[in-house]
Amino acid sequence: MTEPIHVLHVDDDPAFAELTATFLERADDRFVVDSVTSVEAGLDRLAATDVDCVVSDYEMDRLTGIEFLDAIRTGYGDLPFVLFTGKGSEEIASEAISAGVTDYLQKGRGTDRYTILAHRISNAVSAHRSRAESESRRQRLEGILTAVPGCVVQVDADGQFVFANERAKAVLGLTRATLTDCAYNDIEWGIRDLDGDPIPDAELPFRRVYETGEPLYGYRHTIRWPDGTEKVLLVNGAPTFDDDGAVESVLFSLVDVTDRRAQERRLEVTTHRLDLALEATDTGVWEWDLETDAVVWDETLERVMGLEPGTFEGTYEAFAARIHRADLDDVERRLERALETDGDYRIECRMRRADGTVLWTESHATVVDNEKGRRMVGIHHDITDRKRREAEVERTNRRLDSILESTTTPMFLKDADGRYLLVNDHYRRLFGLSDSEVIGRTDAEIHPTTMAAEVGANDRRVLDAAEPLRTTERIVVDGEKRTFLTSKVPVHDGTDDGPPNAVFGVAKDITEREAYRTTLERQNELLEQFAGVVSHDLRSPITVAQGRLELASEECDSVHLDDAADALARSQELIGDLLALSRQGRGTDEIESVSLADAVDACWRTVETGTATLAVETTGTIRADRSRLGQLLQNLVRNAVEHGSPGDRTDDSSVSITVGDLNDGFYVADDGPGIPPDVRERAFETASEGTPGFGLGIVAQVAAAHGWTVRIAESEGGGARFEISGVESA
Known about the structure:
Strand content: 25-35%
Structural class: alpha+beta
Helix content: 40-55%
Distance between the termini: 53 Å
CATH superfamily of the largest domain: Histidine kinase-like ATPase, C-terminal domain
């Protein structure tokens, strides 16, 4: 997305202001023009919104455009300001330039003036943004250099020191204030090469970097401290460039290697071989005689390169022939630099083994100069496996980036101060923001205050506790408040030992689900209230009727009284089932591990089973709400007892009930008359004709609350078999 340009146009002629806005936005689709008709309104608008450029008339009712410009320069610095006026004169132009106007243009006639104005605005904003970015880069660079533990100095194009960090005092023997008064070639430095000879100006590190525009590594020379002490410096330099690509300064990293240099002179070639070989296991050592050009490999390096021991003896050309062609130029440049400066040589490059296969090697070397002559001693370590792992990590990172961008939920990463480090495409599309509008900013800068405060508080909880957080947050999208379920986790910088320094989050829009849940809870409350009232109003007269029957049975003996008592008892049971059924819409309260056999035993003790018998053929443990599981079992057992009793059977035997295991659940079966196939589909409907009533409705509700499935089949004894599947084992 192209970054918009916000233009504030001030002109006391509303019609002209509207016309100007229309032509500007037509000339450049980046322009967003806000028009006001007075300087006071313009200042108010500047205080309230971000503006990239101000366009103003000169002659207005109360204040002139120059007076407006003075106020802007006082309060808003170098914000681009274009004087677009119908009253033009050299005097006004001179006054505008003196006041610091960015550009000056007369209105004139014809629409081409608006095209010119659009170009002037675009150029002014581009230049202003470029300066702001350059200043931001400069400040960031200075902040980094100040914090760097090594000695870092900056030399401008004239060769003067313009920056020195705190470490410069210890390395150069000067204070930062004193150092910035010096030039790179001041005679007081007493700069000489390692042999004590003066160094021509053209060969000094600053001049070489400034003239070539190329970095310089590993250069060594001596300097004289203010007290006369000579020190050896290791110099690395890199150029910085201005917007035109010209070198504007040189940054130097300086290391005092006086002690190291003295030690290097005392080391023998054998010591170098040992030190380098110990840097890594399975590492081959090589030696290059710089006087005879002879190159010798040790047996380890020969083995790594697929050669028989003692078979490689040759010159540098034979050595270079083994280096992959794509890496040869870089190898030779670094070798040349090390030889020129007596510095270290380090590189990762590819080499060809004797059988033609390619392996990655890490090579370290140093120049040794003693009575045995000048030579370079180095090592080659096989890092092929490491490179393969790095490539796999890179591929994994690319895949993760692809997943992050293609996922359909908003994702984000923020630092410990709440600044966004990363957002995915869904986040950008959700809020209609670009990376440039999000990255580096906080929620308080891009979202409403209340939302930002809630989100920021949750981020802080994750960082302070160093633990994940799953919570709901009220998020404003296009002015509408929505509910998101957000999961946030702490992110550590490479180690879990220290405090987290970032928060990664994933959000899901659950607005509609929350609204449905609220509605459902209200409906459940109303249903329970209704069922309670109904059960109370029905039970009271039934209880009275049962009492009257009991009194009547004492006065006379009639089979009709017994039948009436049974009917009233059944009515009481149906009312209880109705009340229980009304409460089944709730979810399971507490899922735990439950022994199915124990649950069946508890159920059997609470149900009137008469002469019925029970066979428990299960030893499994399942994940369930213990109370709700008990309701399911009680209703299945009660159903078997009531509909499989002797009165419902063709013989006088009692019903037998069996509870057993399925592959993904359990079953409850009986040997009663069973449920006809044409009734089974309606069996779980409450009180429908030909079905057992409310009890099986409760069974279906409990199963659904757990995510289980209930199926009715015929048992081995010809009765009903209820199969409950989809049950999670503990």
